[in-house]
Amino acid sequence: MPKLASDLSSVINHRLNELTPSRIRSFDQQISSIPNIIKLTIGEPDLDTPEHIKQAAINDIKANDSHYAPQSGKPELKEAIANYLKRSLGVDYNPESEICVTVGATGALNNVFMSILNPGDKILVPTPVWALYFQLIKVIGAIPIQIDTSKDGFILTPDHLQEVLENEGKGAKAIILTDPSNPTGRVYHAELLEQLAHVITKNHLFSITDEIYGELVYGNNQHHSLSQYIPERNILISGFSKAYAMTGWRLGYIAAPNQIMKSIIKMNSYLITSVTNNVQVAATEALTNGQNDPINARKVYEKRLNFMKSGLEKLGFELATPQGAFYIFAKIPKKFGQDDVTFATELAKKAHVGVTPGRYFGKGGQGYVRMSYASSTKNLKEALKRITDFLNSIE
């Protein structure tokens, strides 16, 4: 096997040396070898992609749709996305010039960060949050400013945002907001988003909203978007991975004003050329004829949420009021203090249940663990039983 020439060993992008592997993934791999473990660690639906969506992709392959797609996406998919955003949020985007199709929401994040951030720019990141944000921002040379929301019920308040902007976040260029939240499952209501929009506008910020879980909101809660209040500032990111159980299809999208979208599409074309044809056709089918698919998935997840919430609260866990996505962010027993890593490790080794330490999601996550209920009801029932036995054994 070849060994890299010694004179080339230091000729790399040095910013990569500053990045750490995903601790979420590393912990998941660490516990995966434990026999008979039930993993509630990774945020991936256990549901299957609906049959009509799969069939649309198969038909497209058989039709020899095998040439380059337009760099910003197939026109029919961009039109379907624009129609969906109009239908679900009441926002208007021109499918020709204000929509871009990407390789997953992660690809969308890369496109946006690389389009608006320069080395040294500050971007505000309310935490706890999906930790990949930090690495994508750092590799550009920009600076993520964490905003710990734990004292406000894991919701960013307008007053807290303004306070940060007057101190460590002074001069920030942008803010990214995940709604519904990963890992807490919290949802921002309309009035709060409107108030945040006022602060964002007053401070001349870009806003980026990661709305990948937007279809998965439970109870009387509704999904809203900053695009409903500041469409001239907001860059909306979403995709098909969660609501349509299409994580492996890698299909996301961006909606934003034309002026910034020109740069985003340019970056998208440099990074990927274009998204796979049959995947785009499948996504078009999802939005056009699959409106009931997220509703059906939501019913399954909400039932699981209620089961897990009830069971964990009976065991004495304090929860971060989950309202959306498919996660529960639970405060660990007092016996462990703030040591969520030890708790998660012992739970995996002794009870054979995998959960993710909360500190891996940034400031405010210490002392919590994230549990994904995107797992079968059978697994969740057994996991809850094992957690109960584990807690009884340490009391």
Provide structural commentary.
The chain is of the alpha/beta class and about 400 residues long. It folds into two domains: about 5-50 and about 295-395, Aspartate Aminotransferase, domain 1; about 65-290, 3-Layer(aba) Sandwich (Aspartate Aminotransferase, domain 2), CATH 3.40.640.10. It is built from twelve helices and 13 strands. The protein has helices spanning about 25-30, 50-60, 75-90, 105-115, 130-140, 160-165, 190-200, 260-270, 275-290, 290-315, 340-350, 375-395; strands at about 40, 100, 120-125, 145-150, 175-180, 205-210, 235-240, 250-255, 320, 325-330, 355, 355, 370. The strands form three sheets. A seven-stranded mixed β-sheet has the order 2-8-7-6-5-3-4, with helices on both faces. Helix 3 (about 75-90) runs parallel beside helix 9. It is globular. The N and C termini lie far apart (about 55 Å). The mean pLDDT is about 95. Its cofactor is pyridoxal 5'-phosphate. InterPro entries: Aminotransferase_I/II_large, AspAT/PAT-like, NHTrfase_class1_PyrdxlP-BS, PyrdxlP-dep_Trfase, PyrdxlP-dep_Trfase_major, PyrdxlP-dep_Trfase_small. Keywords: Aminotransferase, Pyridoxal phosphate, Transferase.
Can you give the mean pLDDT? 95
**Neighbour order of strands in the largest sheet:** 2-8-7-6-5-3-4
The residue fraction in helices comes out at 40-55%
CATH superfamily of the largest domain: Type I PLP-dependent aspartate aminotransferase-like (Major domain)
> Could you state the order of secondary-structure elements as H and E?
HEHHEHEHEHEHEEEHHHEEHEEEH
Which structural class do you get from the secondary structure elements?
alpha/beta
> Rough shape?
globular
Number of domains: 2
Helix count? 12
Largest sheet descriptor: 7 strands, mixed
Count of β-strands: 13
Instruction: Give the low-confidence spans.
Output: none
CA-to-CA gap between the ends? Answer: 54 Å
Radius of gyration: 21 Å
Keywords: Aminotransferase, Pyridoxal phosphate, Transferase
InterPro entries: Aminotransferase_I/II_large, AspAT/PAT-like, NHTrfase_class1_PyrdxlP-BS, PyrdxlP-dep_Trfase, PyrdxlP-dep_Trfase_major, PyrdxlP-dep_Trfase_small
Cofactor: pyridoxal 5'-phosphate
Pfam family, one: Aminotran_1_2
